[in-house]
Amino acid sequence: MKIAVLGAGAIGAYVGAALHRAGVEVHLIARGAHLAAMREHGVRVLSPRGDFTARPHATSDPAEVGEVDYVFLGLKAYSYASSGDLLAPLMGPDTAVIAAQNGIPWWYFHGMTGHPLEGQRIEAVDPGGSVTAVLPMERAIGCVVYCSTEIESPGVIRHLEGTRFSIGEPDRSISARCVALSEAMIAGGLKCPVEKDVREDIWIKLMGNVAFNPLSALTRATMVEICDHDDSRDLVAQMMAETLTIARAAGCDPNISIDKRIDGARRVGHHKTSMLQDLEAGKRLEIDAIIGAVVEIAELTRVPAPTLRHVYAAIDLLSRTSVVS
Where are the transmembrane segments (predicted)? Predict the structure, then answer.
């Protein structure tokens, strides 16, 4: 098995290090000081499950890697459409792409045989078909990340919690390529269940992201601060309830309690969401996949979602007026 990690940041480098520890041929594609450190010292993982160092090949040039069996995408979803030049040298006839992204993926309605929206393109995450042109639907393996990591310093990954990477085919089949990837991930010390319908995991995680990410960026509050403020907690609950209704209208019925989902977020404590961290760092906000696509699916399924629409309007304006480095 040969795997390239394109965008070997906090999550990508952690996954690459785990797979390399399992004996997989891994190639990390990164840039800057982080790449230089990984080349010189390998990837140092600091984890409550035990520290370790892995030394997979690291490069900034995918042409050095060539065709692989799998590409693990550690890029933000808004970077997919412009990643064609990086992806092209890695793509063989059967190369699969694992998109470890937050929110709704570009392939969401692909493979939903019999569903009225089967094959529907979601403009928010595939504008003009630009992502599909780079990442054809048949290459996609869904992936939902239940893992928190950060780059403590170049080449050093701090693993905070979670090791689960749920994967699955858009057409709900249990494929040989998913099973093989799952076995490799498990051998590397990760949890990697192959789900018959990974969309349920997408919506369960999205229930938290769709509410806490934009609200944290708009208020500069941590997750526990949002939960402990009565009115903002009610706002989160309204957004989650609307999201569940949209999920069901789109053909998925997540088995999750809103109160439990909120309480689970509260237990994370004074954690800044990725969107708030991006805002403070002057980076582009990942709003299209996390909330824009949900609002678009609400329109497609004719589900009223006034709270989501209002919050989306506010976070979209913030993203347009923020300075992006």
Answer: none
What is the domain-level CATH number for residue 219?
Answer: 1.10.1040.10
| Closest C-alpha among 140, 211, 201 to residue 165 | 201
> Regarding beta strands 156-168 and 140-153, do their DSSP bridges make them parallel or antiparallel, or are they unpaired?
antiparallel
Please report where in the chains the tokens 């933000």 appear, as a residue.
76
**Domain of 292, in residue numbers:** 200-323
CA distance 13 to 18: 9
Model-wide pTM > 0.90: yes
- Residues annotated catalytic, as ranges: 205
CB 239 within 8 A of CB 262: no
What are the Cα distances from residue 36, in Å, to 19, 51, 66, 153, 313?
20, 21, 21, 12, 40
Q: What distance lies between CA 80 and its chain's CA centroid? A: 12
pLDDT reported for residue 306: 98
How many other CB atoms are found less than 10 A from the CB of residue 59?
18
End-to-end CA distance of the chain: 37
The reply to whether 21 and 164 lie within a common domain is: yes
Beta bridge partners of 158: 46, 150
Residues 192 and 281 in one domain: no
Give the C-alpha separation, 145 to 76, whole Å.
13
Condensed to tens digits (0 to 9), the pLDDT of residues 258-298 reads 999 899 888 877 888 989 999 999 999 999 999 999 999 99
